[in-house]
Amino acid sequence: MTEKRERLDRVNTYSRPSELRITDMRIANFVGLPMDVSIIRIDTNQGISGYGEVRDWASKTYALMLKSRILGENPCNIDKIFRKIKQFGHHARQAGGVCGIEMALMDLAGKAYGVPAYMLAGGKFRDKVLCYCDTPSVNDAVEMGNRLKARMERGFKFLKFDVGIDLVAHIPGTISAPPGMIETREIMHPFTGIQLTKKGIDLLVEYVGTVRDIIGYEVPLAADHFGHLNLESCIRLGRELDQFTLAWYEDMIPWQFTDQYVRLSQSVTTPICTGEDIYLKENFKPLIEARGVAIIHPDPATSGGILETKRIGDYAQEHGIAMALHMAGSPIAALAAAHIAAATENFLALENHSVDLPRWNDLISGLPNPLIQDGYIAVPETPGLGFTDLNLEVWREFLDARDPLFFDPTDSWNTERSHDRLWS
């Protein structure tokens, strides 16, 4: 009997996964992390909670409308719940609710079973996750190069910056565009009529060359935010920038145009990357199967959460395509992405936008501070996403004054109903 008691002392009898049930879901809204985000907390009948994140600049309603559909479910049935709610997600920010809930379920299930989330995704390929550091661009190329050099001095081994029409739009003779098109952000690239002139391209080439002279070539340097250019200007610019061995050209055109991505990929010698706005594996398939990209770039808060993004990465690997991860949120989204990166063999690098936010690291407890050290996140070995708790007073510093929800009751969403079945 004594021996049996001693064995039980080493077993967590508080959490009984088969009896676990979702009893509540609450949300808090924050700004400047570095983007605006909503954090989901899913509570259970056994006193454990799981956390997820509605991605940057999405509506909290995308998550709240799903509350009635998950109440009473066992959160360990992650795939079952995901299949139930995934019809309510869509591309870009509209997937925020589904993905945030999936992250919280993985956090909960990991805590219930006492294992890190990557274990639920099949185990890990690496003990630490390489982060690439996104750095806001400035018009002065020397200052930009020095900013990136400073990132390297802080230990980052993979960098990204913006190379686009915003850098030259103030200079006459650099851009040819119909009236109003440079200012708008509502018209897709192929329909704007915006073109870079030779002068514009030459100035951007000079800019990138100066940056490369300062930081050298040993550290990968990716490029993003080219502007709403047509495909032909993207090709012309891309061919001129190929000489600088950039890690990738990101989101040069909207992801929906697979045939244009194929043409772009075949026209330049720099890897092509896109995917942060794509929801679910099935919608990555056209780009992957047509080899329109060399690198897919899902954001787990849009692509489907942890397990679906792992599936996307595996599918890309079958076609010889690498996977980087987009991430512009809090440590909760960063940790969810880190578990995906650990569990996906063809992973390349994980984005981080928060280097200039010292308090970002203080939002959670139980993990190394800072979370990123020497350019890497150490893969947590603690249950769920890995952190032990939220430091609520720090989170309050980022509370959204326009909608200051701070895990307040959401009972009005408990009985929201519709006939959700998609077949007769």
Task: Report a brief summary of the structure.
The chain has 424 residues and is α/β, with parallel strands linked by helices.
List the helices and strands and how they pair.
Blueprint: H1 2-9, E1 22-30, E2 37-44, E3 49-54, H2 61-64, H3 67-70, H4 78-85, H5 96-113, H6 117-120, E4 128-134, H7 141-153, E5 159-162, E6 175-176, E7 195-196, H8 198-215, E8 221-224, H9 231-241, E9 249-250, H10 258-267, E10 272-274, H11 281-289, E11 295-296, H12 300-303, H13 305-318, E12 322-325, H14 331-343, E13 347-352, E14 364-365, E15 372-373, E16 376-378, E17 389-390, H15 392-396
Helix pairs in contact: 4-5, 7-8, 8-9, 11-13, 13-14
Structure description:
The chain is α/β, with parallel strands linked by helices and about 425 residues long. The chain folds into 2 domains: about 110 residues, Enolase-like, domain 1; about 270 residues, Enolase-like C-terminal domain (TIM Barrel), CATH 3.20.20. It is built from 15 helices and 17 strands. Strands 4, 5, 8, 9, 10, 11, 12, 13, 15 and 16 form a 10-stranded mixed sheet that branches. A 3-stranded antiparallel sheet has the order 1-2-3. A two-stranded antiparallel sheet has the order 6-7. Strand 9, helix 10 and strand 10 form a beta-alpha-beta unit. The protein starts with a helix and ends in a 28-residue tail after the last helix. The model has no long low-confidence stretch (mean pLDDT about 95).
Radius of gyration: 22 Å
**Under the CATH scheme, which architecture of the largest domain would be assigned?**
Alpha-Beta Barrel
Please give the CATH class of the largest domain: Alpha Beta
Q: What composes the largest sheet?
A: 10 strands, mixed
CATH topology of the largest domain: TIM Barrel
Structural class, by secondary structure, is alpha/beta
Taking the alpha carbons of the first and last residues, their distance comes to 58 Å
